[in-house]
Input
Amino acid sequence: MRARSGHIKFDKKVKWKNLVTAFRPLFLKFLEETQQLPEDMESVDVLIEENLRDLRNNRKPEGYNREGLMRMIFPISNEIEFYLYGRGKTIEVARVTEQLSRILQKYRLKHTIEWDRLKIFADKKEA
Output
């Protein structure tokens, strides 16, 4: 499957704080699968802790919005959701999104996956 973005939308019963236990394995899997895991694990631990602090306080986390092949974005929204946006091979976005979905299933976090829901790219397809 080819996708430029993979959107994970959580069930209405899921709150930000419900993601606390799943976040570390989710984030590490994202970095590993996208080959963005730095040698310096200390910086990764700081990023994870900053995101966990927000989640523990039931707030939207930052995610991973750095220069690279793929980003994990938690958009400003009234819904509990995040998406992966890839700038490289579109097939990788689908594969990594599916991998992260499996981790969320393991932690029993009910969610759905949608593909290519970014408005900016949807407008370009229609033109």
User: Anything to note?
Assistant: The helical segments are 20-33, 41-56, 90-106, 119-126. The mean pLDDT is 90. The longest strand covers residues 5-10.
